[in-house]
Specification:
Length: about 230
Amino acid sequence: MLKDLTINKKDIAIFIAILFHLCGAIGILFTFQKDWFISNTNFNLLLMAALLIWVQPNKNLHFFLFLSISFFLGMGTEMIGVNTGKLFGNYQYGNVLGKKLNGVPFLIGINWFVVVYCSGVIITKFSEWIEEKYETQGIRIKPWITTVSFVIDGAMIATMFDYNLESVAGKLNYWHWKNDSVPMYNFVCWFVISGILLYIFKKLNFYKGNLFAVHLLIIQYLFFISLQIYLPR
């Protein structure tokens, strides 16, 4: 019964995610209501985070601990970046993403959770597949190798998501870089900070097979790629 309920939740969440991102892409690219769709980005991000939490089976203290750490670490590092330039580079947030604390929208902390959590689930599934292949050949991977590989691979996925997003962030008024140039240092910081969060993700004991997270990151990748290709320069 619980299994059937989880499957139903996942299917509903995937449908809602596809619907909202498809409507958003069409609205931004092909209608005269572009600004309205962009201004509702904050609602879309909140809804996707809510769906992740809703679909998550067996929610426990460790899951909410990871959510909290991701939010506060994400907000803290972004505040340092926005106000000092010592992390990420010189940039400022626009008004699209809603209310801010010290120049950083609260939604950015939520976005750190969503991106790193989805990346962690993807790498968890991939790691399990790899380990199973090795075990069938009688090879056992050392735990420290598994952990290092998990952190590096997951951080690369999270950083590539940011790289994909950066190409349209300014056009959508999410944030703006000094001289409209994204520094390589931004991606270095993304890799390191997401790597730290992924290490915590791996060590905490909660269910990490939420397949909606895999679908959500793919949907968001496709959404921003479509904007990158078709949004006027």
